[in-house]
Write a structure and sequence with these properties.
Strand content: under 5%
Structural class: mainly alpha
Order of helices and strands: HHHHHHHHHHHHHEHHEE
Number of helices: 15
Helix content: 55-70%
Radius of gyration: 20 Å
Mean pLDDT: 90
């Protein structure tokens, strides 16, 4: 398949089925893109949309988010899971305010908490319409399906090389949106499996995991301070004490005498 043929396939799908009305696409401000990208790192679009709308209603801009206590940010984040992303987003907002402007260069973006190579590329593309290259699951799916059908050891370096060669730089923001939506469709059809990726590892289950307990703790503490005994009444897990200490070491939870609380919590 030539580059021109590939671009036609991707654009045709987007014209007919693209999700053009996602809130962060309708208003791709740097702040909206940052919030959406961190939310989307581990969560499907359908779950993110209502949480994104609520979050940017509560914290209307990067300054309001930076000034809010972490406890309020974590409370607004509930339902998305992976609560460390909320802390990273809060810290990133504070770093941006301290910097005095929203960075648009890759080397500056990756210095923000929670922003790695791919998220930095996404911010450059979606918020600033800069030509940049990043590879994530949906994009891998598209390239696996069209270019690596007979391979099971595809590296990200190969994906990056193909992406640079085939990207439609005339409309880079739209091109990535089209790739993402087309990749979502292919995944729904069980096509272009990411298991072709070299060093691919399937994520462990959520139920019964330490991740689930972490989420339960944060959710309970959004309602106010609680002792370990009070938490144990609703979280029946022998790892509770260990996970609480881990959350404290990460700055996600604070301890005041015998009670646990979220940072900045007043109740």
């Amino acid at each position: 398949m030539t580059t021109e043929q590939f671009q036609v396939v991707v654009w045709q799908y987007y014209e007919g089925h693209g999700r053009k009305h996602l809130p962060w696409r309708e208003d791709p401000s740097p702040y909206h893109v940052l919030v959406s990208e961190l939310m989307l790192q581990q969560t499907q679009v359908e779950r993110v949309i209502p949480k994104f709308n609520m979050f940017v209603h509560v914290f209307k801009n990067v300054e309001q988010l930076a000034q809010a206590p972490l406890s309020e940010v974590l409370a607004a984040w509930q339902g998305l899971g992976y609560n460390r992303r909320a802390r990273y987003l809060h810290e990133a907002a504070q770093a941006i305010v301290h910097l005095g402007h929203f960075p648009d260069k890759h080397e500056d973006l990756v210095k923000l908490p929670g922003v790695g190579r791919n998220t930095a590329g996404a911010i450059q593309v979606y918020a600033f319409a800069h030509v940049a290259f990043f590879v994530e699951t949906n994009i891998r799916t598209v390239y696996f399906y069209h270019f690596f059908a007979d391979r099971t050891d595809v590296t990200d370096a190969e994906n990056y090389a193909l992406l640079e060669r085939t990207a439609d730089r005339r409309n880079i923001r739209g091109w990535y949106a089209a790739l993402m939506d087309y990749g979502t469709y292919l995944k729904s059809q069980k096509l272009g499996s990411i298991s072709k990726r070299k060093h691919y590892k399937k994520q462990g289950g959520f139920m019964g995991s330490a991740r689930q307990v972490r989420g339960q703790i944060i959710r309970e503490l959004t309602h106010g301070k609680k002792t370990e005994a009070q938490l144990a009444q609703v979280i029946n897990d022998e790892r509770l004490g260990i996970i609480l200490e881990k959350l404290i070491s990460e700055g996600m939870v604070e301890k005041e005498r015998t009670a646990y609380m979220l940072p900045g919590q007043l109740v």
